[in-house]
Amino acid sequence: MDGDSLLIMDVLVELEDGSLTNVEIQKVPYAFPAERMSCYSADLVMRQYARVRGERGKYFSYRDMKKVYTIIIFEQSERIFGQIPECYIHRGCTRFDSGLELPLLQEYCLVCLDVFRKFPYPKEKNEQTAWLSFLLTESMEDAERLAEEYPWLEEIYRELAMLRQRPEEVLGMFSDALRIMDQNTVKYMIEEQQKVMDDQRRELEEQRRILLEKDREYQTLKTESDQRLKERDQRLQESDRRLQEQEARIRELEALLEEKQG
Q1: Residue with more model confidence, 141 or 186
Q2: 15: enclosing H helix or E strand
Q3: Is the predicted pLDDT of residue 102 greater than 80, yes or no?
Q4: How far is residue 71 from each of residues 37, 54, 108, 119, 143, measured CA to CA in Å?
């Protein structure tokens, strides 16, 4: 597994009829899945073309070309697959809107393991179910249970155990160009995620700035309000003092009046 790759597995397979198949398992969905699959498929076509033309020489015919299949297996599928939540396998090829039957070389198959695991589909006991369940093996208990249901898997589990002891036999990307493209894609995804984080950080800083401004405004208003309350209290105290003086003066006048009347 390449250190800066998002892949669990990437293998190029030649089928009995000469068709080429690229099988890839992604631990994290890549950005631009459609464009990326198109590039992989185009790489397979040109790889086969160069080989067959080299072998056949002047006898080469495009009829010698076989189909190429791009199979992407997602451990965690992208949100776009949620548009069709009841399906965990999506097969596709190029078709013409006129109904013209002209089979092109490139076909695709997308497999969503998380959907296969999550939804309680009626899973028939067949080879496809066995392989998808095999890819979801996470413990010895899973392996033992599957080996009981599908005894032919036991030999594969044993071979995998051997390969874990000698991983150098299975490492290596089949195309330097695609490896570089993958690295660039990973870097792009990291940069995009960094942009999202930077935007969120700027947004938080802006919200913090606004809150600080509002807090300063509140403190200013509170200070002004406290000052106004203090001034009002002073005015009330002054009014109360004057009332007391007036009441004292009234009492003096009343006393003088009583003396004169007496």
Answers
A1: 141
A2: none
A3: yes
A4: 9, 26, 6, 21, 24
Both tokens of 216, joined, read 């300063």
Each domain of the chain, given as residue ranges in start order, spans: 1-121, 133-172
Res. 262 pLDDT band, cuts 50 70 90: low
Residues 6+ apart with CB under 8 A from 179: 2, 173
Q: Which amino acid is at 201?
A: R
Would you list the DSSP string of 208-233? HHHHHHHHHHHHHHHHHHHHHHHHHH
Task: Report, in angstroms and rounded to the nearest whole number, the Rg of the chain calculated over CA atoms.
Answer: 40
Residue 212 near residue 35, CB atoms below 8 Å: no
- Say which residue the tokens 């509170």 belong to: 222
Residue with tokens 């406290």: 226
Average pLDDT, stretch 14-30? 71
44: nearest Cα among 179, 174, 181, 184? 174
The better pLDDT of the pair 2, 127 is held by: 127
**Model pTM score:** 0.54
In this predicted structure, what is the pLDDT of residue 136?
85
Cα distance between residue 39 and residue 52, in whole Å:
20
Q: How far apart are CA 124 and CA 103, in angstroms?
A: 30
